[in-house]
Amino acid sequence: MAGPLDGLRVLEVGDLVGAAYATKLLADLGADVVKLERPGEGDLARRRGPFPGGVPHPEKSGLFLYLNANKRGITLDLAEPRGREVLERLAAGADLLVHNVHPTAMAAHGLDWERLSAANPRLVMTSVTPFGLDGQHAGYRGPDVVLWSAGGVAALNGMPGEPDLPPLKAFGDQSGFQAALNAAIGSLGALFARLATGTGEHVEVSAQESVAAILELTFEFWPYCGLVASRLGAKPIQPLCSMECRDGWIFVCCVEEHQWKAFVDIMGNPEWASMEIFENRLARGANFDALQVFLREWCREQSVAELYEAAQRRRIPFAPVSTMGDLLDSPHLKARGFFVTLEHPAAGRVTMPGAPYRFAATPWALRRPAPCLGQHTAEVLAEVGLDAARLAAEGVV
Amino acid sequence: MVENFAAGVMDRMGLGYEVLRARKPDLVMIALSGYGATGPDSDKVSYGPAQVPLSGLSSVTGYRGFPPMHVGISYGDPTGGLHGAVAVLAALLHRARTGRGQYVDLSQWETSIAVLPDAVIDWTMNAVQPPRDGNRDAHMAPHGVFRAAGDDRWIAVAAEDDAAWRRLAAAIGRPELGDDPRYASVVGRKRHEDELEEVVAAWTRERTPEEATAALQAAGVAAFTAATNQDLAEDPHLAARDFFVELPHPEVGVRRHVGVPWRMSASECRVRRPAPALGADTDTVLRDVCGYDEAEIAALRAAGALA
Fold first, then answer.
1. Distance CA A31, CA B293 (A)
2. What is the mean pLDDT of residues B229-248?
3. Which of A222, A314, B104, B175 could form a disulfide with B170 if both were Cys (CB 3.0 to 4.6 A apart)?
4. C-alpha–C-alpha distance, residues B57 and A203, integer Å
């Protein structure tokens, strides 16, 4: 069945997550995405894993296989003038080009907006950058630990009683995923605008800004109250924290008064819960040191699954601290068919996250595994009238 | 139509997709719920902060040897919302091409797992639950957040590859370490990561994070202040890029807010108006969008439908 973006022609020049997840979102909804990789080594994600048995192999990286399923892949050396000519030929027939080549290297890789748009005025080009295309930090570089810090989230994560533990990044390349989501939105927005104008435009995404944009109220503590939000500070509202049970961890979440009252009921209305220092959510935040002693003692005796169900029956949004195994075993995620398994010629069967949303009329679908390096070079170049064998002889593909 | 009630609430109010579609056949509607509209857990309730543990992100985030951590923000909310915007725009482009609307069911839980593929696949491939390892990275070293001069000030520094390590060593006045064969490859640097982190920290703690960032980035080394909300609000780069939004609001006046994290060369791309005061636009929307006249609006108000 057709996807909502059927017929959309997309080019990607991407390493790791920033561009590749943006185009994955589009490919999974039907777009024809052609990924351009450097001859020889290809996308850096091919070296990142996880790998079966922990043994690196460029065709077996779980991260690469996830990010690049549903795409076709070609090799092209954009450092060579002939390679850049081929890029122009491909871009002339494309609706969208998404890349995360660093701003200081764009020109040398043929990612010249004026030139590409002159040849194809309908083209949309989206540049995913660490700090933006202009401004005094545009030349700065950074992997996730730097960008998650630069965007202000790392400074919010730590343990209040441990001032010598540094601001903590989240697992994985979360700044890359956030930038990629914004790149997909900006790209689709530009394609929507093109319906009216007939012309494309250049979209620029800053990963630092993408992270800063999810700070929500924590940013506003400074302009509104002159307060610096710190990983060492007390949370205003409690309990909103993970607690250890006898068989794992649970996230205890009582944001509203009725949720707290229901939780106290689950705990059997212990006497301490009626103490004045716990009388409302702000008091519980201010006196969390005392509160957590009682909660720890009670939670230690509970089972995660039973407490989760008891809380949910009373409409309290508790959640287990899931391990990866818990997710794969979840009857709910199984019933929704969330995890999908792809058969890849080199890596074999790989199970990975699937559709994050369900379209009623035009389903999300996996049509093909991620490409092996250069797998579709001849096919894609033939579509624009080029002979891959000749280009290979020139060392361009 | 965008709604984020718990699954089933819109149906119970008589405002489900089938009802609304009868009035507007090409409607695009998205329901953003914690667990999704179907499945045995669909009647459970969820908040954005609870998605961090529920998705598995907490289980792989944390200091080595310490419990699972949160990430510091309500991460399930933006991750779910941004995926929702992608879905809606795709559905609207599809409608522009075909004339057909549709219903989209988004699960915040699933969108939160979608950004953890490396952890999920380590489990499905190898039955390995990735251990919590602070700010370290399997493929880069040194790679961390280091104490800088000042009161609780920190800087993130990463040597992305072997050449970046040599640049880092030179920039912190230890070029001999850049030439040391023990540290030439990431395997060697991972083996000696404790010592190398101490070398970097000895240099950063003598400098403010801003000084250290400027020196390291000038040398081609990835680094930046672990910015607080104050640092961001006062960041000259972000100000020069017009990132911030400052619009007059009747209750709070002009305050600085973060803006749109992308720019468009041709389309208007900015925050056009402040958040509305409660009910500020009730009458204009009822009149201009729904076509009610003043008497009908007054009747709705008298019936308590607007209060």
1. 45
2. 97
3. B175
4. 30
Which of B46, B75, B198, B258 has the highest number of chain A CBs within 10 A, making it the mutation to test binding with A? B258
Q: What is the pTM of this model?
A: 0.97
Q: At B144, is the secondary structure helix, strand, or coil?
A: strand
The answer to whether A215 contacts B229, with C-beta atoms less than 8 Å apart, is yes
Max alpha carbon distance in chain B (Å)? 84
Q: Is the pLDDT of residue B261 over 80?
A: yes
Tell me the sheet residues that pair with A183: none
Query: How far is C-alpha B304 from the geometric centre of its chain's CA atoms?
Result: 38
**What are the tens digits of pLDDT across the range A231-272?**
998 888 899 999 999 999 999 999 999 999 999 999 999 999
Query: Cβ–Cβ of A184/B224 closer than 8 Å?
Result: no
Q: Across the interface, do B102 and A361 touch by the CB < 8 Å criterion? A: yes
Å from B40 to nearest chain A CA?
A: 5
Residue A67 at interface with chain B, using a CB cutoff of 8 Å: yes
Q: What is the pLDDT of residue A235?
A: 83
Under an 8 A CB cutoff, do B228 and A201 touch? no
User: Which pLDDT does position A395 carry in this prediction?
Assistant: 83
A1 confidence band (pLDDT: 50, 70, 90): low
Q: How many CB pairs under 8 A join A and B?
A: 473
Closest C-alpha to A252, from A345, A321, A193, A183: A321
Contacts of A213 (CB under 8 A, 6+ apart): A178, A182, B78, B258, B259, B260, B261
Closest-CA residue of chain A to B265: A202
- The residues near A59 (Cβ < 8 Å, ≥ 6 apart) are A46, A344, A345, A346, A347, A372, A373
For A279, other C-beta atoms within 10 Å of its C-beta total: 14
3-state secondary structure A279-346: CCHHHHHHCHHHHHHHHHHHHCCCCHHHHHHHHHHCCCCCEECCCHHHHHHCHHHHHCCCEEEEEECC
| ipTM entry | 0.98
**Which residue of chain A is at minimal alpha-carbon distance from B253?**
A224
